């Protein structure tokens, strides 16, 4: 069964460094998402991506964040200058079309900023 | 910005009985409502959804009820099984932006 994959599973970085989190969505899916979950808190929407551009983004997704789909299969989230409060689990998700709305999530990347 | 609230952080139910998980929302413009299940160290897994124009959707042991006047959504699992023990999130969307609740941790006791 096709699945969303994410690498790395755990990333440790120093404050101020840039990180790139990678995702390979399911191949025939059209909509792509990044979410984060700070330990003990809810899953928070960061950004949605469709037709090679950002569709919607939350207030969390400021200028420090960017997304790319560089080669038609990978979908990346870049954090330019990490802060301690960026430490969280980051989930990538994809879905095939407009309706139904269910998304398929990857296993997540745990980002630890020290 | 609590668009979606799950007021019960945890729930314990005996195997074979009904589990009822609840969710309240604030915005009557939401399109779809979804339930996800999450095990530790895994991403959320889609369970069941309901369009805002319906009031019930059933899939096997899982039924979702939508009460639009009360802005309330519930997930019924019957009969509950030990493998159902997980964190359950309700979620909803406006367009391509999705909002998740804080989750309810369900424990099904054998």
Give an overview of the whole structure.
The complex is a heterodimer of chains A (114) and B (110). Chain A is an all-beta fold. Chain A is built from no helices and eleven strands. The mean pLDDT of chain A is 93. By secondary structure, chain B is mainly beta. The termini of chain B are far apart. The model of chain B has no long low-confidence stretch (mean pLDDT 93). Classes of the chains: A mainly beta (114), B mainly beta (110). The A-B interface holds A 4, 31, 33, 35, 41-45, 48, 50, 55-56, 58, 91, 93, 99-108 and B 31-32, 34, 36, 41-46, 49, 89, 91, 93, 95-103.
Radius of gyration of chain A: 13 Å
Largest β-sheet summary of chain B:
6 strands, mixed
Strand tally of chain B? 11
Q: Determine the N-to-C terminus distance of chain A.
A: 37 Å
Backbone structural class of chain A: mainly beta
Number of strands of chain A: 11
| Rg of chain B computed from alpha carbons, rounded to a whole number of angstroms | 13 Å
Helix content of chain A: under 10%
Strand composition percent of chain A? over 45%
Largest interface, C-beta within 8 A: A-B, 26 and 23 residues
Question: How many strands, what sense, and barrel or not for the largest sheet of chain A?
Answer: 7 strands, mixed
Task: Give the assembly state of these chains.
Answer: heterodimer
User: Which spans of chain B have pLDDT < 50 for at least 5 consecutive residues?
Assistant: none
Mean pLDDT of chain A, to the nearest integer, reads: 93
- Note the total helix count of chain B: 0
């Amino acid at each position: 069964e096709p699945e969303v994959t994410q690498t790395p599973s755990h990333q440790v970085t120093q404050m101020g460094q840039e990180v790139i989190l990678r995702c390979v969505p399911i191949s025939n899916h059209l909509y792509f998402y990044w979410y984060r979950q700070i330990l003990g808190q809810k899953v928070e929407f960061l950004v949605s991506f469709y037709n090679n551009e950002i569709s919607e983004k939350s207030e969390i997704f400021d200028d420090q964040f960017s997304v790319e789909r560089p080669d038609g299969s990978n979908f990346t989230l870049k954090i330019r200058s990490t802060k301690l409060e960026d430490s969280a689990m980051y989930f990538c998700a994809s879905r095939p079309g407009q309706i139904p709305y269910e998304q398929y999530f990857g296993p997540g990347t745990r980002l630890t900023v020290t | 910005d609590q668009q979606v609230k799950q007021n019960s952080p945890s729930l314990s139910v005996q195997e074979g009985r009904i589990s009822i998980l609840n969710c309240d929302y604030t915005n009557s413009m939401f399109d779809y409502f979804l339930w996800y299940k999450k095990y530790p160290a895994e991403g959320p897994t889609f369970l069941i959804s309901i369009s805002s124009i319906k009031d019930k959707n059933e899939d096997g042991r899982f039924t979702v009820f939508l009460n639009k006047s009360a802005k309330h959504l519930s997930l019924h699992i019957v009969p509950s099984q030990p493998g159902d023990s997980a964190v359950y999130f309700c979620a909803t969307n406006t367009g391509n932006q999705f909002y998740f609740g804080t989750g309810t941790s369900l424990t099904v006791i054998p």
